[in-house]
Each structure stands twice: as structure tokens, then as C-alpha cells.
Amino acid sequence: VEREYENAGIKPGQVDTGAVIITGETSRKENARTVLNTLSDFAGEFVVTTAGPHLESVLAAKGAGAMEISLKEKLPVLHIDIGGGTSNLCLIEKGNILRTGCLNVGGRLLKRDKAGVVTYVSPVLEGFTSIKVGDSPTKEELLQLSGLLCDVLCACAGRKKKTILLESFSTKEAGAPWKPPENEVLVSFSGGVAECIEREVEENAYGDLGPLLGKAIGGSSLCRGPYRISGKAIRSTVIGAGCHATMLSGSTVFTQN
After folding, report:
1. pTM to 2 decimals?
2. In this structure, are strands 87-93 and 227-229 parallel, antiparallel, or unpaired?
3. What digits encode the pLDDT tens for the residues 74-113?
4. Which one of 11, 155, 199, 253 has the minimum C-beta count within 10 Å?
């Protein structure tokens, strides 16, 4: 962060306000709170928080333009923001948010080094894969795991009847398991994995499952019906926070344009 300030040619004290938001898999790390506090002290008058799954789902949907899509299309829109450790869900109809949710599905649930050796396996995969740290899994094993995660997303859109999978992969933070929409929806995608749905990306380009998961989604029922991929897929949550989530509190407010 300090290096980026230097690259920009500004000092932290010159920045009036901003936000540091830790989300998804990162928020579960044991040092997440320490990182938040350190960045808060370093950056100045910043809002620092860990975004809950429901807030993040709304921010991602707004930042990706899913709200506008729902106003133009006849079908309800299910926005899926697929990040490193979680996928945030937002069901929208005619610009109104019907419900939000979150699944333990993401590209960095499993990480590998450049040689293909596994360096991390998320606890949420326990019981769903035999791959462990130190293994060098075959492409078939990785495709099988990616396909499983893709099945969870297909189920969340009502494209597959996999109730048990939805219950198993729904996050505790989101509360009740996600309930699939009863009618046909247009699926909207954002997040890092969304960048890999239509692009050819080398399978270990990022040292995770992202490219294989993206390819699995592209060949699944999620992309056989109407769907959209956000033009700024990987930055949707940030755009949502910056452009669509201003909250003012106090007895008086003054603004001059």
C-alpha cells in the first residue's frame, strides 16, 4: 500500500476519505482484523470494515449493472459474484432486490504453486475432495472438483436439483440455505472467476481453480440460457461500494454542487 502511494505521488494525509473492505475468504483469515486495523491507522480517515455476505451481494450486483439489466429484461436477474472463496447471490426483479445469499464457492478454495503442487485447501472442501496439501492432482481430479463447484452454482439458479449441495455450500454468515428461484432467470456474472468464463486462460495461470471453474461454468446450463458477464467483472464490488452505497448520518447535512 505504501508503494502504491509512492507510485501515485501522493501522501496518505492528502486523501480525505476512503474505505478498506475485507470480504469473502479473506475475512476468515486469523489476521484479518490486524490487517484492517493496520491499514486504518496507515491510510488516514478511512472507513474500515468486514463486509457481510448480504451487503457484499448488493454492492456487487449494483456495481456490475445487474440492477439496470433487471429493468430492461422481462426475466428476473440472478446476479452471481464469484470471488476467491465465496459467491455472492442477488435475485433482482424490475430493479427491486428480492433476496440475497452467499455460497462457499470460489476460485481460491484450492491453491497450487507453479509446479502444480497444492499449497492450500479450504476447510469448506472437507468431505468433497481427497486432494490435500502436498499433492500434485491430475487435471481430471481438478476438473472433477471444478465441476462440483459449478454444480452448486447451477443449483442456486434452479438449473439443477441439488438441494443437498446448496445446503452444504451455503455460508453460515448468510443464515438459511439459499432458495433457488422458482421461475426462469437471466444469470449475471461478476468477480474474478467471471473473467475466465469466455476467455481462454491457462489452467494454472493464477495458481488456483479460477480458470477451470470459469471454463466449467461456460460449458454448463448457466450459460445455455440468457446470461451476461459484467464488463468490469473483477471490480464490481468496489464500484458498487464507491458509486452506489453512500450513507449519511446526522442532524444536519449541507452540500454545495
Report:
1. 0.81
2. unpaired
3. 899 999 999 888 999 999 999 999 999 999 999 999 999 9
4. 253
